[in-house]
Amino acid sequence: MYNPFLLEGKTILITGASSGIGQTTAIECSKMGATVIITARNKERLRQTYDQLEGSGHQMILADLTNEDDIKELVEKCPKIDGLVNNAGVASNKPVAFFSQKELDKVYSANTYAPMLIIRWLLKQKKLNDNGSIVFTASVASICSTLSNGIYGSSKAAIAAYMKYCARELSSKGIRANAVHPGMVETKLIHGGAYSEEDLSNDLKNYPLGRYGKPEEIAYAIIYLLSDASSWTTGISLFVDGGCTLQ
């Protein structure tokens, strides 16, 4: 049966695939027929993702994306790919008066510099096929300010801006670049101590649909942007946020 959202015949590299949105995206891409290359730092958790992938031919590669040598080695080990999901990232909850250079470096290295460097090395090593697709996982925090979220939000705003430059510069090769901006999603991250239950309860009031998102709902948006269904879509920021940016 014809389905323009299928990923059959496509090889997709997904970073941050050991948990949350990255893990779910990898699994859902495999269900849509993709050959999936997954990467993260934690071998045990990455293996858990790998074991849930459907189909065959998948590959897992350990890498610390805050280290450019690791990025270069990751790209060297990769086959040629048709899609890249720049999903790996870290959160930060520091008021503007209390963060340090070390905190800035930690967040920007993972959220901003790593995706930029991965693309650089993929292009230098000719590992990203023409007519491919790059998807960045950004955030509603890139445009919606909340207390103590300035480092994270600005790192995602930077990568959303960089996405547009990629879309412009790579268009001659037919390579598309887009960003998905999730709202708050039900992952271990938000219930792991980064936010108090009181904070979450108050924040939920900002969501007209009355709930946080599910990882698979973000994965479906990413799959759309990887698939031929979005072949005339580039340079966009797709907000998947339960309506929280309506305000």
Descriptive terms for the model:
247 residues; alpha/beta; 40% helix; Rossmann fold; seven-stranded parallel sheet; 8 helices
Fraction of residues in helix: 40-55%
For CATH, the homologous superfamily is named as: NAD(P)-binding Rossmann-like Domain
Q: Which structural class best describes the helix and strand composition?
A: alpha/beta
Integer average pLDDT: 95
Q: Please, how many helices?
A: 8
Largest sheet: 7 strands, parallel
Q: What is the H/E order?
A: EHEHEHEHEHEHHHE
Counting DSSP E segments of at least 2 residues, the number of strands comes to: 7
Percent strand: 15-25%
Low-pLDDT ranges: none
Descriptive overview:
The structure is a single chain. The chain contains eight helices and seven strands, in the order βαβαβαβαβαβαααβ. By secondary structure, it is of the alpha/beta class. The model has no long low-confidence stretch (mean pLDDT 95). 44% of the residues are buried. The protein has a seven-stranded parallel beta sheet, sandwiched between helices. α1 packs across α8 (215-226). It has one domain (11-241): NAD(P)-binding Rossmann-like Domain (Rossmann fold, 3-Layer(aba) Sandwich), CATH 3.40.50.720.
